[in-house]
């Protein structure tokens, strides 16, 4: 369970987040949208424990939280396989299970043939898939996605979004995914939060691309209510 209560955080004089209340329960899949600079990444970093609020509280009792960033952040001096192995070892996976787990996840993101490659030899999309495999292989129960697919082509973006949502459904993990395209979250999330002006508001989940459904609905109720 992730529980934010009256959470506020400022960088300088202006609060980025101001009096946030949010509950995320196991199995919930949440999209986060909002204008650039509104505080979406800050919200995820607070959830991951990388930042602490100035006031209020952020309580994360999910035992395994993983945050996937916009950039892959692979260790450049280790092979793709080693990048996963190191994370799995640090995550407490028993040594005799690491190779099988790593191979299964590299296959799921179609990188089985790139296991021995260096991160510098990968395309942007391949590197991002490796970073995602590294996160999912740890079987997180809270997966935080900070626009990790934004630089990828739309088809791959949709595939990887589906993979995350399927994995979350299969394992009962909670997922929070930032996106600049609300319609991309259709079918992947149960709730959408819009971050703006330091606050979050719940917003209807679109049913598909804008040409397939009505335009995104206006905010209708406060989040956490
Ligand atoms: N470590 C930091 N130090 C100072 N200011 C910061 C820091 N991190 C974020 N900010 C500021 O806080 C605000 C919110 O940043 P954040 O990255 O959370 O926005 P965002 O909604 O994720 O934006 P984008 O959609 O452009 O990624 C911005 O004005 C940013 O400049």
Automatic annotation (TrEMBL):
Record-level Gene Ontology MF annotations: ATP binding
Keyword annotations of the record: ATP-binding, Cell membrane, Membrane, Nucleotide-binding, Transport
Annotated region described as Disordered, given as residue ranges: 204-225
Signal peptide: none
Annotated ABC transporter domain residues: 2-222
Keyword Cell membrane: yes
Record Gene3D superfamilies: P-loop containing nucleotide triphosphate hydrolases
A Pfam family annotated for this UniProt entry: ABC_tran
Alphabetized PANTHER family for the sequence: ALIPHATIC SULFONATES IMPORT ATP-BINDING PROTEIN SSUB 2, TAURINE IMPORT ATP-BINDING PROTEIN-RELATED
Similarity field: Belongs to the ABC transporter superfamily.
Protein name, UniProt field: ATP-binding cassette domain-containing protein
């Amino acid at each position: 369970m992730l529980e934010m209560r009256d959470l506020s955080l400022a960088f300088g004089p202006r609060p980025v987040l101001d009096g946030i209340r949010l509950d995320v329960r196991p199995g919930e899949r949440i999209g986060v949208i909002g204008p650039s600079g509104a505080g979406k990444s800050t919200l995820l970093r607070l959830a991951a424990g990388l930042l602490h609020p100035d006031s209020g509280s952020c309580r994360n009792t999910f035992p395994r939280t993983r945050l996937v960033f916009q950039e892959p952040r692979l260790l450049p001096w280790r092979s793709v396989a080693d990048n996963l192995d190191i994370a799995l070892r640090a995550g407490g996976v028993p040594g005799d299970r690491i190779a099988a787990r790593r191979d299964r996840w590299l296959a799921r993101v179609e990188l089985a043939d790139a296991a021995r490659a260096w991160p510098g030899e990968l395309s942007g999309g391949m590197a991002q898939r490796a970073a995602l495999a590294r996160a999912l292989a740890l079987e997180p129960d809270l997966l935080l996605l900070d626009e990790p697919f934004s630089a990828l082509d739309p088809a791959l973006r949709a595939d990887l979004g589906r993979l995350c949502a399927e994995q979350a459904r299969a394992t009962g993990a909670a997922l929070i995914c930032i996106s600049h395209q609300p319609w991309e979250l259709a079918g992947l999330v149960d709730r959408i939060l819009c971050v703006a002006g330091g606050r979050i508001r719940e917003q209807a989940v679109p049913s598909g691309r804008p040409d397939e459904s009505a335009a995104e609905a206006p905010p209708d109720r406060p989040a956490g209510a």
